[in-house]
Amino acid sequence: MDASEEPEGLLLAAGRGSRMGRPKALMATDDVSWVARAAEVLREGGCGRVTVVLGAAAEEARGLVPAGVTVVVAADFATGLSASLRTGLEALSAGDATSALVHLVDLPDVTPAVARRVLQAGAAAGSLARATYAGRPGHPVLIGRDHWSPVLDSLSGDEGARGYLQSADVGLIECGDLAGGEDVDRPGGRRNRC
């Protein structure tokens, strides 16, 4: 498989983390930044390249991004998750990747095994699949290039691609045996379901 056939990892890490009290891109657990850990989940999970979208505290967070990971900045990150996803997909559109595996920075128990399982759905341009945890939809989400334009057209506010995914034929890949898929949303590790 050449680089253009490999899925590209797209890590969304632009938010302010208002409930957390600081941008999640600046968070670390056991001296490992969440950005570095999540980028490695994508790399080790099968993504040939990884792009991270930063926003709040972008310059400080840039120093936490592992070598070899492309950084793009969502200048309008404050408008919500859709701004981050839009910035990332538009950046990937300039390249030749056939699909993007979209992951969030605040999912500490998601491992490379989850990414690999979602990618087993196939990384073709028409692919559309997402991890589920005990039947609940979560991340990562595999979005084939054929879906990028309609996803971009559907984006608004803090919903990301939720509306598009609810209306499309998405392969649901159960990963509850591998992770809980819960995001850390508050200090002290309090988690919310994706």
In summary, what is this structure?
The protein has 194 residues and is an alpha/beta fold.
Structure commentary:
This protein has helices spanning 34-45, 58-62, 81-93, 112-119, 145-154, 162-167; strands at 8-13, 28-29, 32-33, 49-54, 70-73, 99-104, 128-133, 136-144, 171-174, 182-186, 190-193. The protein contains 6 helices and 11 strands. 28% of the residues lie in helices and 28% in strands. The chain has 194 residues and is of the alpha/beta class. It has a 7-stranded mixed β-sheet, sandwiched between helices. Strands 2-3 form a two-stranded antiparallel ribbon. Residues 190-194 have low confidence and may be disordered. A hairpin with a 3-residue loop joins strand 10 and strand 11 (190-193). Helix 1 (34-45) packs across helix 4. It starts with 7 loop residues before the first strand and ends with a strand. It has a single domain (3-179), classed as Alpha-Beta Complex (Spore Coat Polysaccharide Biosynthesis Protein SpsA, Chain A).
From the structure above, extract its key features.
194 residues; two-stranded antiparallel ribbon; globular; disordered C terminus
